[in-house]
From TrEMBL:
InterPro entries according to UniProt: Gfo/Idh/MocA-like_OxRdtase_N (IPR000683), NAD(P)-bd_dom_sf (IPR036291)
Originating organism: Arthrobotrys oligospora (strain ATCC 24927 / CBS 115.81 / DSM 1491)
UniProt superkingdom: Eukaryota
CC per GO annotation: cytoplasm
GO BP, one annotated term: NADPH regeneration
Annotated protein name in UniProt: Gfo/Idh/MocA-like oxidoreductase N-terminal domain-containing protein
Gene Ontology molecular function terms on file: nucleotide binding; oxidoreductase activity
Ranges for domain Gfo/Idh/MocA-like oxidoreductase N-terminal: 10-134
């Protein structure tokens, strides 16, 4: 592997040329051209591959392949960005690490402990490190909230909300004009469904001791998809809960009550058709309420903010503060952090061990809903 240096952009091999690659990762890397350049793309779908290659503004057109192993082994790749389907994250992460490459893996890192253990083992003997793409945790407003709160002392109650409309509503207005393509072979479809079944079995039956049902399968996918954004932010702010007091799970709307030693957290999430991205974390303490407000990440430049409502003056006065430290979007912030990890050896906060805690939360939630 060529040694990346601060003066030459890190050469990225990207696996998974789907929606998030087209809407976020490729445009972000194009903008960050002094830090990164796309040199290799992989997808099992040749049409998606060709389309994404045309979207890269690298100095030379990126090479393309349908074989993730080939990309990971390439001399033209310093680091690998995995944004393929959930079930393949660990498979692709392993290829990258075995070739001594740093690897960014989109959330959810994994859905079962078996995969987490494999990845940890391979990482322990690799020159590469895993960076998990929990981008909301790199948003300025989130970091401001962590600072503003300064720990969980004095927390009385927390509300985590993520109620959104179908992503397509935002994506169609994002100005990135992504495309979806048919064109995956029957053999690939079969391999994909077998891999999904294997992961589902490991997650529900082996890890959680639950029978596989359609509803649990869907909820596992939703918690790994939308849920992992909220739950990982909750963990960073508050640590792990000791359990779940109750949960009502429906694939359109779900509610969970987490039990922390001195307070409870309501986590409410789901989908409706109102074109609104209603995502926030609201932390109540005796003297102030801190709210992190997220807008859709698909429209670049929409700010995340924190709002602090608090007592002021002699204690009978009230004030509200709105803080918007930066217009820089979370994907850009996140890529800047990954660059620091690759070039300057900074330890990421979103590691394999960190992401493994997510699986404990999924287990608590799914078991409580029985
Ligand atoms: N951080 C975020 O904000 C965010 C947002 C959306 C999606 N995601 C995550 O990113 C990942 C991709 O999501 P998406 O919406 O782009 O999905 P998508 O289905 O649109 O794209 C996935 C792509 O991966 C390709 N792929 C699947 N298996 C492959 C394999 N074995 N080898 C090579 N290519 C393969 C598919 O052909 C497809 O083009 C998911 O894990 C999702 O959870 C993260």
């Amino acid at each position: 592997m060529a040694s990346p240096s601060q003066t030459s952009p890190i050469r990225i091999g990207l696996i998974g040329c789907g929606e998030i690659a087209q809407v976020a990762h490729i445009p972000t890397i194009n903008f960050l051209s002094t830090k990164f350049t796309l040199t290799y793309l992989c997808d099992i779908n040749p049409k998606a591959l060709a389309f994404c290659a045309s979207r890269c503004s690298s100095a030379s057109p990126p090479k393309t392949t349908q074989d993730a192993k080939e990309l990971c082994a390439s001399e033209n790749v310093d680091a690998v960005l995995v944004c393929s389907s959930d079930a393949y994250h660990v498979v692709h992460g392993v290829y990258a690490l075995k070739n001594g490459k740093h690897v960014f893996i989109e959330k959810p890192l994994a859905l079962c402990q078996f995969d987490i253990q494999i990845l940890k083992k391979v990482e322990s003997t690799s020159k590469g490190r895993v960076f998990v793409g929990y981008m909301r945790r790199y948003a300025s407003a989130f970091l401001d909230a962590v600072k503003e709160l300064g720990g969980t002392e004095g927390v009385q109650y927390v509300k985590v909300r993520d109620i959104i409309c179908p992503n397509s509503i935002f994506i169609n207005q994002s100005g990135t004009f992504p495309q979806k393509f048919d064109g995956i072979s029957e053999e690939e479809k079969q391999a994909f469904s077998e891999r999904e079944d294997q992961v589902t079995h490991e997650a529900l039956v082996v890890d959680m001791g639950l029978a596989i049902t359609e509803k649990r399968k869907t909820m596992l996918r939703l918690l790994g998809g939308l849920g992992s954004h909220d739950l990982s932010a909750m963990r960073e702010l508050l640590g792990m809960p000791r359990g779940v007091l109750g949960a009502r799970l429906s694939p359109t709307m779900w509610t969970v009550l987490f039990d922390y030693p001195n307070f409870a957290v309501t986590y409410e999430s789901g989908f409706n058709n109102i074109p609104l991205f209603d995502a926030s974390i609201e932390i109540f303490t005796e003297d102030k309420v801190v709210t992190v407000k997220y807008d859709t990440p698909y429209v670049k430049g929409l700010p995340t903010t924190i709002v602090v409502r608090e007592k002021a003056g002699d204690g009978t006065a009230y004030q509200e503060r709105v803080l918007r430290t930066s217009y820089e979007d979370p994907y850009t912030k996140q890529m800047g952090e990954w660059w620091e990890c690759i070039v300057n050896g900074k330890e990421p906060k979103t590691t394999i061990d960190d992401a493994a805690l997510e699986l404990d939360l999924f287990k608590m939630i799914l078991r409580a809903a029985d």
